[in-house]
Amino acid sequence: MIDTHSHIYSAEFDDDRPQVMQRAIDAGVTHIVLPNENLESVQRLLDTQSQWPENISLALGLHPEEVRDDWRETLDQLEQQFVRHQWVAIGEVGIDLYWDKTYKHQQMQALERQLGWCVDRHLPFIIHCREALDEVLDVLGQFRGQMPQGVFHCFTGTPQEVDCIRQVGDFYFGIGGVLTFKKSTLPEALPVITLDRILLETDSPYMAPVPHRGQRNESAFVADVARCMAQVLDITLDEVDRVTTANAQALRLV
Ligand SMILES: [Zn+2]
Predict the structure, then answer these.
(1) Which domains does the chain carry?
(2) Interval between CA 125 and ligand 1 midpoint (Å)
(3) pTM of the complete model beyond 0.90
(4) Mean confidence (pLDDT) of the chain
(5) In the chain, N or C: fewer CB atoms in 10 Å?
(6) 44 C-alpha vs ligand 1 centroid, how far in Å?
(7) Residue 34 Cα, ligand 1 centroid: separation in angstroms?
């Protein structure tokens, strides 16, 4: 199994990161993808990867909630990291208008520039989209004809939203703990997405699945998401594991 989205490098794991990593490996997680958040987090990503180089790959990007008036300079500085290290994706990038719409236009411009990195460097994107689907699809729409491949991480939407996204591109959908929540629309959306466009993820330390809901999430719990997915799609856990792993490989996250 592959956890395609974890913040295991964050301070929430400073006390027990090796144990968390071992539990993930014991649960069958072979690989974890770490998305970047801001300038300061870059070194944490690199330090974490250097401890488990076989199991961890890194994405470079500016999280939409970190976009401020100085986003251009921040992206200039992040861009220097391309020559220093290897990155498998651009992320996490996107638009988040849930708490605050102040930087909506800056978020859209920062997303556009970072999607340009995907095109120039032939890397997939990891998109964070909250209360901003129209805006994200607007920006992606500007790349018609040279559309990068990528994943809508922490997808929690409806079958209709899957269709809207597909009108722009044939993207992947990152599915995590929300699938296991009672009021989730994902059990209806998954058959529309189909298994060949699904990636497993935790978004740890957030979004812990049932039966860990409300606790700190960790990569080992991706197995709970996979079990729930097998039930919803009426297939075996083995098949969920095999196809989602192949999907992450197809997207070259691993
Ligand atoms: Zn994230």
Answers:
(1) 2-250 (3.20.20.140)
(2) 13
(3) yes
(4) 98
(5) C
(6) 14
(7) 8
